[in-house]
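Appendix B, example 12.
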Amino acid sequence: MASLDALTDGGRRFVSEHHLATLSTVGRSGAIHVVAIGYTLDDGGVRIITSDGSQKVRNIERDARATVAQVSGPQWLSIAGTAVVERDPAAVAHAVALYAQRYRQPRANPQRVVLRITPERVMGSAGLFG
C-alpha cells in the first residue's frame, strides 16, 4: 500500500490531468453503488462536488466507506477511506475552485455539497509512487 504523499511527479500529474474516475459507496441494500465523478486532491484528502440529497450523499450518510478509482490506459489509482459530507459554504467554495482548476467551472448549484474522503488505503500502478 502506498500513500498520496509518495506520489511521483508522474503520479501527481496523473491526479491533476483531466481524467474522470468512479466513486464506489455502499447502497441501502448493501450492494456497491458506483458512479462516474470528477475529483480533486488537496491536503491529502479527496474532494467530490455533488448535489445534496443525491444517492452518493445518502449512501455516505448511512455508511462512510468510499473508494475513488481512476484509470487511463495502463495507469490506475484506487483511494479508499472514510467520507463525510461538508455543507459549509467555505468548504464548498474551496472544492469548486479545485474542481474548476482540474476540469472546468461547474454550473451554479445552490444545493452543492462536498464529499471529502480521508484516505486509508491507496494503491496504484507502477510508477505512480516513489
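The chain has three helices and seven strands. The beta strands are 21-26, 32-37, 40-42, 45-51, 65-72, 75-86, 112-124.
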